[in-house]
Structures are given as C-alpha cells and as structure tokens.
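Figure 6 in text form: structure in, sequence out.
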C-alpha cells in the first residue's frame, strides 16, 4: 500500500462510517463486535478521550480495550470509572477488556498485589469489563527465574479474580517464545504452571508471527479454549514494525485459527505505532480493510 492508496482507503473508511450498517457490508449476522485497543490511538486519548471514542465509533468500532487505569486516583483518562462508564453508555459503546498495570507488582508482596488487584476488580466491574489483562513483562524478568515468578503471580491473580464475575488473561509479545534452554520457553512456563480455567490468554498475532517459532493455529491446537481474546495487527514488509491492516506481510486469510476452538470472545485491532499518516487515519484504514477482507471470519 503506497501513500496514495492509503489516503484513498482512509477516505473510503471515513465516508463509509457515516452510512447505515446495511450499506457498509458490515453484516447483521456478525458474532463479534469490531474491537480496538485504544493504546493504538493514545496520543488522542490523552487529550480528548470522548472525541476520540466518537471518531472510532464512526469508523465502525464498537468495543474497546483500555489501558492506563490509575489505582491511586481511581481514574482512567481523567474520569472515575463511574463517569467513564456513563460516557460509554451515552455513546452506546463497550469496554470488554483492560490492560492493567500488573507488571509493576513483580516484586510486591502478596498482600500488596491483592490490594492492587482489588482496585482493578472494582474499576473493571464498574466499567463492565469482562477481562482484566496482564499486558507485558519487563525485560529483567525475561529469563527462567523471571517467568517462574511471573507464573506464581499469574496464579495468585487468577485465583483472586476467579472469585468474581470477571476473567483474567495474559497478553503475549514475542520474547516469551525465546528458548531458555533445552527447548523450554517462558510461554511454556506460563501455560503449564497456571490453571487454564483461571488464567486465559490474549493472543497477539503480530508477535506470534514476528517471533516465527510457532503459529496462531498451532497455539490454539496446543491450548484449545484458552485464547479468549485476539489482537490483530499487521507487520511492515520491510521494517517488520507495526503497520495498518492490509499494508503488511501477515496473511490473515491463512493464519486465523478457528474462533470456536480458540474459545474466542473478543478481538481487538491494534497498531502500537509506525503510522503511515497518523493514528486516526491508521485506525480508519485498518477498519476499512477488516470490514472488506476479514469480517467474513467473525
């Protein structure tokens, strides 16, 4: 996709967004809402979260995954969870998952971790989240000891959240699949030392394909029913950085696993950076490509 094609696709997405659903080809028989991880448009969310959500809705996005909840102030994007939920209700939007700052508690005591998770549970329940998601692990813990500690933390959090109506999930990157010796990976440790019923997975397909040691279909076959959420983003053909859907090297027609075998409940388009024009235009271009090429699978 060159610059001209990108601009044309973005314009088409903007124009289509104002049409009724029946005119856009976004079928009424869809099983899943079109989701977006708003970290992808964080430059806009910081300054104008309500206006940004309105623009994303106009592109066709209906469900979101948040980031940035501050437990100390009980605020997200400057709003209390109650006020943010009221905004979502007014816009007829949902937030089914949130990335919470759990990775900061790797060295915390069990009591400190439990208190933080309690705050996350309270906020998530108010916003009607379905999942609290662990988003990443800091570099010093990307080793055998670190993953062993992480598995203990995930197990504790999973047990705590299982006492509520919420679910808990771990989001992968690529480093979890690095060989730690004798073919053992951090992902093996996470998966094998946690309860599949209490610790679900959010599969980031970009990172699975980027690390190149396995595929989404192979992971689903190995851990069926555990991948309740997917992140969908494309990989630039040259730099291998993020890029808009349809602008990269990942052929989603070939790599998408079966949603039923996966246990899929929600999916989110994501682009953490490397925008062709800007974050807003990229969100529109990815939505347009998804509705044209990938909606049939969802």
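Output sequence:
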């Amino acid at each position: 996709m060159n610059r001209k094609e990108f601009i044309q696709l973005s314009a088409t997405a903007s124009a289509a967004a104002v049409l009724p659903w029946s005119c856009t080809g976004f079928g009424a028989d869809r099983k899943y809402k079109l989701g977006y991880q708003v970290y992808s448009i964080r430059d806009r969310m910081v300054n104008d979260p309500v206006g940004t959500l309105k623009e994303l809705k106009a592109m066709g996005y209906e469900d979101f995954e948040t980031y940035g909840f501050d437990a100390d102030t009980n605020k997200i994007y400057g709003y209390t969870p109650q006020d943010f939920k009221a905004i979502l209700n007014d816009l007829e939007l949902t937030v089914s998952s949130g990335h919470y700052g759990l990775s900061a508690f790797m060295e915390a005591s069990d009591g400190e971790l439990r208190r933080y998770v309690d705050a996350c549970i309270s906020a998530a329940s108010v916003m009607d989240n379905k999942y609290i998601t662990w988003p990443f692990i800091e570099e010093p813990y990307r080793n055998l000891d670190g993953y062993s500690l992480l598995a203990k933390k995930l197990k504790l959090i999973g047990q705590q959240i299982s006492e509520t109506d919420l679910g808990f999930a771990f989001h992968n990157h690529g480093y979890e699949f690095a060989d730690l010796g004798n073919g053992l990976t951090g992902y093996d440790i996470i998966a094998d030392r946690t309860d599949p019923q209490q610790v679900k997975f959010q599969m980031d397909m970009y990172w699975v394909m980027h690390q190149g040691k396995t595929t989404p279909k192979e992971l689903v076959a190995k851990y069926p029913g555990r991948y309740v959420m997917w992140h969908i983003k494309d990989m630039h053909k040259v730099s291998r950085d993020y890029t808009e859907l349809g602008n990269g090297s990942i052929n989603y027609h070939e790599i998408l696993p079966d949603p039923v075998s996966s246990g899929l409940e929600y999916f989110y388009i994501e682009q953490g950076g490397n925008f062709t024009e800007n974050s807003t235009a990229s969100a529109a271009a990815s939505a347009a490509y998804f509705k044209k090429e990938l909606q049939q699978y969802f």
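Caption detail: The mean pLDDT is 92.
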